[in-house]
């Protein structure tokens, strides 16, 4: 005796019609008939009288239906209750990200892999402002964030796991006169319109680079953008040249050109989390991220 057999019996006993029962159960009529026949064989008594024109319950079938209808209701409720408990037992982890190009490649793979490899972990994603990652981590808004080491600094509360190293690129419109350079220097960019991050939102290394430009001799023209996507859109529209981390821009998708800037700073990109909130589930997610990053 199995659950589907009982479902078929209770539904046929309610409708007294095999065709109607099959539609309600989303089964074929032969499948319903087979389940009823198997159940009758196991019980060693008939449940229904069948004729060409009608179906009716036998006396034994009527008594069985009185008992089984309640059993079926209790069983379905038990399944619902147990599923809710199972969902509650899943570890829920909130991941913060900044919409960098490297994250657009990583996060879909992370969600897909976690469904199969970390069935007891539920992941949720939310983007954050470049300047708020650490504070959101400390306030519990996120369990871990994808960020650069400079935004964390030498903070003893935070564990930073490096995933990728990058550098600063100059982002130009396709066909710009500097597009054929292998590398660009500060002097190459003199008197050109530049696009910087808003100083209130720029990560420390970006802010330091921007200050280097501002303090350098020569005439400087610049305007600011609040996000990477805004900076790219401004470049595409001919508003200027942006200076962004190499892992922030996919030139093929964005239809721009990226050329390394001659600037001796290495940018460490990785995942950060509070040491005090380390858990087996969090460690498992970090290890999965490390594995996936090795394939990007």
From TrEMBL:
<dbReference type="GO" id="GO:0003700">
    <property type="term" value="F:DNA-binding transcription factor activity"/>
</dbReference>
<keyword id="KW-0804">Transcription</keyword>
<keyword id="KW-0238">DNA-binding</keyword>
<dbReference type="Pfam" id="PF03466">
    <property type="entry name" value="LysR_substrate"/>
</dbReference>
<dbReference type="GO" id="GO:0032993">
    <property type="term" value="C:protein-DNA complex"/>
</dbReference>
<feature type="domain" description="HTH lysR-type">
    <location>
        <begin position="1"/>
        <end position="58"/>
    </location>
</feature>
<dbReference type="InterPro" id="IPR036390">
    <property type="entry name" value="WH_DNA-bd_sf"/>
</dbReference>
<keyword id="KW-0805">Transcription regulation</keyword>
<dbReference type="GO" id="GO:0003677">
    <property type="term" value="F:DNA binding"/>
</dbReference>
<dbReference type="InterPro" id="IPR000847">
    <property type="entry name" value="LysR_HTH_N"/>
</dbReference>
<protein>
    <submittedName>
        <fullName>Hca operon transcriptional activator</fullName>
    </submittedName>
</protein>
<comment type="similarity">
    <text>Belongs to the LysR transcriptional regulatory family.</text>
</comment>
<dbReference type="Pfam" id="PF00126">
    <property type="entry name" value="HTH_1"/>
</dbReference>
<dbReference type="InterPro" id="IPR005119">
    <property type="entry name" value="LysR_subst-bd"/>
</dbReference>
<dbReference type="InterPro" id="IPR036388">
    <property type="entry name" value="WH-like_DNA-bd_sf"/>
</dbReference>
């Amino acid at each position: 005796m199995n659950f589907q057999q009982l479902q078929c019996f209770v539904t046929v006993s309610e409708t007294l019609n095999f065709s109607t029962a099959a539609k309600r159960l989303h089964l074929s009529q032969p499948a319903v008939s087979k389940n009823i026949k198997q159940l009758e064989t196991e019980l060693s008594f008939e449940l229904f009288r069948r004729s060409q024109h009608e179906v009716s319950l036998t006396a034994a079938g009527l008594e069985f239906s009185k008992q089984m209808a309640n059993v079926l209701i209790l069983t379905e409720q038990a399944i619902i209750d147990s599923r809710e408990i199972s969902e509650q037992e899943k570890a829920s982890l909130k991941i913060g990200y900044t919409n960098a190009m490297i994250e657009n490649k990583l996060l879909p793979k992370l969600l897909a892999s976690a469904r199969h490899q970390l069935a007891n972990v539920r992941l949720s994603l939310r983007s954050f402002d470049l300047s708020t990652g650490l504070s959101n981590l400390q306030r519990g808004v996120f369990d871990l964030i994808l960020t650069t080491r400079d935004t964390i600094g030498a903070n003893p509360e935070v564990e930073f796991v490096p995933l990728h190293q990058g550098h600063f690129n100059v982002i130009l419109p396709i066909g710009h006169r500097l597009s054929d350079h292998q590398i660009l220097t500060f002097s190459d960019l003199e008197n050109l319109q530049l696009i910087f991050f808003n100083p209130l939102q720029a990560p420390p290394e970006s802010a330091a680079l921007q200050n280097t430009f501002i303090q350098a001799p020569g005439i400087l023209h610049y305007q600011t953008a609040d996000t990477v996507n805004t900076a790219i859109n401004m470049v595409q529209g001919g508003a200027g040249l942006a200076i962004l981390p190499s892992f922030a821009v996919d030139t093929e998708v964005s239809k721009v050109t990226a050329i390394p800037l001659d600037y001796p700073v290495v940018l460490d990109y990785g995942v950060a989390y509070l040491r005090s909130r380390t858990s087996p589930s969090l460690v498992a997610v970090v290890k999965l991220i490390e594995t996936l990053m090795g394939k990007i």
